[in-house]
Amino acid sequence: MSSSAFKTPQRLSLSDGKTVALRIRKSRRARRMILRALPFGAGAELVLPPGVGAAEGLDFARRRAGWIQSRIEEQPPRAPFADGVEIPFLGGSLTIRHCPQLRGVVRCEGSELCIAGGTAHLPRRVADWLKARAREKITPCAHGMAEHLGRRVKRIGLRDPRTRWGSCSAQGGLSFSWRLVLAPVPVLEYVVAHETAHLVEHNHSPAFWGVVEKLVGDPSEQRQWLRRFGPELHRYG
Ligand SMILES: [Zn+2]
Q1: 3-class SS of residue 79
Q2: pLDDT digits over 3-50, tens only?
Q3: How close is the Cα of 38 to the center of ligand 1, in Å?
Q4: Does 81 reside within a domain?
Q5: Are both 171 and 225 inside the same structural domain?
Q6: CA of 200 to the centre of ligand 1 (A)
Q7: Contact, 121 vs 105, CB < 8 A?
């Protein structure tokens, strides 16, 4: 990456003086330039195939600013964590309730998630609670699957990446999006199986998919769910 366009975040000018963040990345597999809206407030992404420079890419993006603006504007609005907001949770849903009088910090009662304390702390408390549930769900799942494959998970990290649901490092550490707790359980389990299978096969070969199937069966339904509904999980919080 020689051009500074890859390092410094770019802004793309839209109409009415609006701008959006434009992330530019190179792809060895891309055959043409691809411009797309990223989910919920993350702006746009421009993918460059081999041989296309940043300047040419930026020019391409500028000419399509009107198109990308409509794609961004047709997305459903963000759903910040606040009183009365309904959030998906492990295939069901929870409604956030601000309960200033509640003892403790957070209590989950049926389909209500009651959050104590001041309004200012509510978003962080909801996020912390969801991350704790994600860890609770993912950790035993990953260790169990790894054991089944005769491998060991070194460590499990939880992050909030924009474009991926999990990753596996060469050192045997796994990392997941805490937002998987907003997806149905079989989807979460598939992603855990996918990353755990990389402890055995560090690629996406047929052998790799064989390992995934051994862990969770045919994952095509789950993969389809993630492609279709995954981006929406970024609306929350
Ligand atoms: Zn993979």
Answers
A1: strand
A2: 556 666 789 998 888 899 999 999 999 999 999 988 777 789 999 999
A3: 21
A4: no
A5: yes
A6: 11
A7: no
